[in-house]
Design a protein that fits this description.
By secondary structure, this protein is mainly alpha-helical. It contains five helices and two strands; from the N terminus they run ββααααα. The protein starts with 5 loop residues before the first strand and ends in a 22-residue tail after the last helix.
């Protein structure tokens, strides 16, 4: 039995349990495309990954200019990980969505999410480099990008502005 979303009797995309699931293809920044258009491969939802797998997969997506899809990977980590790390993964997801909005041209929303994500990961409760993640460096990156957007910047290239989750790239 296929788990792919299918239209219900009103034409809405639903999964096998009847939950709403948008089956429209998406572009690299997660924007919906018309049905029948070829989009980029979507991240599967609800995947439990190790923190290492999460960081490596998210970094690859960020490097490819697909921060929306990296956000999906972080979202899985925050939903399936330990309670004491949820704010870390949620903050990383907010950074990815902030970059997504910045690349789509929503500069105000992008800056807000970048600042919110920087605040979430910068709480210091995880230690200096949780799972090797350079939370301090990411906070600086996010605040600098937000400032640039607020000072009259323009839409950014997501791949060119992708952060390094581990700062110096160690262990990637």
């Amino acid at each position: 039995m296929s788990t792919a979303p299918r239209p219900d009797d009103r034409g809405r995309d639903r999964d096998a349990e009847g939950r709403a699931r948008n089956a429209r293809p998406r572009d690299g920044l997660g924007r919906p495309l018309p049905y029948g258009t070829e989009g980029v491969e979507r991240q599967p939802e609800g995947v439990a990954r190790t923190p290492e797998e999460t960081v490596v997969q998210a970094q690859a997506l960020l490097d490819a200019g697909r921060p929306f899809h990296a956000h999906e990977v972080f979202e899985d980590a925050w939903k399936s990980g330990p309670d004491d790390e949820r704010d870390l993964w949620k903050g990383l997801a907010q950074l990815a969505v902030g970059l997504t909005h910045s690349a789509r041209g929503n500069l105000t929303g992008g800056a807000r999410l970048l600042r919110r994500g920087a605040g979430a990961i910068g709480s210091g409760q995880w230690g200096e480099r949780p799972h090797g993640i350079d939370v301090d460096g990411l906070g600086v990156w996010a605040k600098e990008l937000a400032r640039s957007l607020e000072e009259g910047g323009s839409a950014v290239d997501a791949a060119e502005h992708a952060p390094l989750l581990r700062g110096d790239g160690a262990a990637l």
